[in-house]
Amino acid sequence: MHATLLGILGLALLGALHAQDSVPVQSDFQQDKLVGKWYSIGLASNSNWLKEKKHLMKMCTTVISATADGNLEVTSTYPKGDQCEKRNSLYTKTEQPGRFSYTSPRWGSKHDIRVVETNYEEYALVATQISKSTGSSTMVLLYSRTKELSPERLERFTQFSREQGLTDEEILILPRTGESSRRER
Predict the structure, then answer these.
(1) Which residues are catalytic?
(2) What is the pLDDT of residue 172?
(3) What is the pLDDT of residue 57?
(4) Residues 182, 137: Cα–Cα separation, whole Å
(5) Which Pfam families match (predicted)?
């Protein structure tokens, strides 16, 4: 009985690791082309915080810059009430170009970040697997160089998010700051 339970747990862990490894990374990733200003157009996640904060979410700006040692400094500015809040994160490069790691100093969560696809001038699709002591979650972000993207890019974001196991209720197209209407997919 004990061996059977360990076997089942082992298979479950192997399946989770395999699913994480099946998330692609942009081929021929060029980090220098990813730097600059981006807008968060879409957000999808199965985390509890999204369920609680979903109705408050709005488009934010993110500035990505390269550090001297090849990592990425990511600064996001979020609207919070009638003010803006900035969050800085250091994404550490891995051996695989387009894949980064980050550990949240606030929550202690570990983030496996992958630039899934981008054309650098229009959009970037980024998938993150987040692990913490209470469990794991998936997050997909759609970035754009402008505040609007084509319906085809929005649909690709939605399709990819579904492929990661996220439901339509967990997939958001974020309203621009100052817009009162809420668009959800």
Answers:
(1) 60
(2) 95
(3) 86
(4) 24
(5) Lipocalin
154 phi, psi to nearest 5 deg: -65, -40
**Does the pTM of the predicted model rise above 0.90?**
no
Residue 151 pairs in a beta bridge with none
DSSP letter for each residue of 32-45: HHH-EEEEEEEEEE
* Average pLDDT per 10 consecutive residues for the chain, totaling 185 residues: 42 41 91 97 92 85 96 89 83 97 92 98 97 93 96 98 96 76 38
129-134 long-range contacts (CB < 8 A, ≥24 apart) are 129/20, 129/23, 130/47, 132/107, 132/108, 133/108
What pLDDT sits at residue 21? 62
Give the model's pLDDT for residue 45: 96
Q: What are residue 72's DSSP bridge partners?
A: 66, 91
The tokens describing 60, both together, are: 């934010």
What's the distance, CA 166 to chain centroid?
A: 13
Q: By C-alpha distance, which of 5, 36, 11 is closest to 121?
A: 36
Q: Which residue type sits at 90?
A: L
Query: Could you tell me which of 87, 91, 85 has the C-alpha nearest to residue 35?
Result: 91
> Which H/E stretch holds residue 117?
strand 110-118
∠ CA 25-101-165 to the nearest 5 degrees?
55
Q: Are 60 and 76 in contact (CB under 8 A)?
A: yes
Q: Which pair of tokens denotes residue 168?
A: 């339509």
Go through the domains of the chain in sequence order and give each one's CATH number.
Answer: 31-173 (2.40.128.20)
